[in-house]
Amino acid sequence: LLFLWSITVSIFGIGGLLGSSGSRYLTVKFGKKKCLLCNNVLMIVAASIMGCSKIVQSFEMILIGRFMCGVSAGLCVPLHHQYVGEISPKKLRGFANSTSSFFWSLGKVVGQISGQRELLGSQSLWPMLMASCGFPALVQLVALPFFPESPPYLLMHTGDQEGCKKAIRQLWGEGQHQAEIDDIMKEKATMKNTKILSVLELVKEPAFRWQLYMIVILTATIQLCGINAV
Known about the structure:
Elements (H helix, E strand, L loop, with lengths): L1 H20 L1 H8 L1 H20 L7 H29 L5 H22 L11 H6 L2 H10 L7 H6 L4 H12 L5 H15 L6 H6 L4 H14 L8
């Protein structure tokens, strides 16, 4: 039983690792907006599976749902940052990206409060608690089609300059946005001369060794700060 509990908890992280590893390939091939839409569908399916686990008396459904949630979260973290940053005007880009951390923390707080036995953590309502992760995904699935694709993606990966201009006008309003388009073109020119490293190449690259050590140590020690125990 302890082993099953441990697997149920940790399989979320395994799914997150797989999801984040495949995010770059998917965003380049399909675009950030399409990936986010499909990711929302994945999260809704995962929430439905976990929500129905008690009805069909299957703990395996919780394992599958947790794994799918992990994959969805792993995809969402880099996707969300990139999409929000790329559709925001330059003067608001830093603020828009910083809201991600705020809402992740807010989500954890809401989850902790909702998980109390007096609320959704009771013996009869816990399936509803596990299925609640599908609600934000459903909201985004309904709202996101009204947003355009990321302008940098349209210009840099598909070469659709008119589509890029249309997306910029839809997002930032009418006006002169040639400076932003020139910046994207400069970034595109820079990327042609820059080698994109895979995860394995990054690990093997000596120039990034100390930065990698620092990131790994910081990320590992965050897990030891006591937040999970709390």
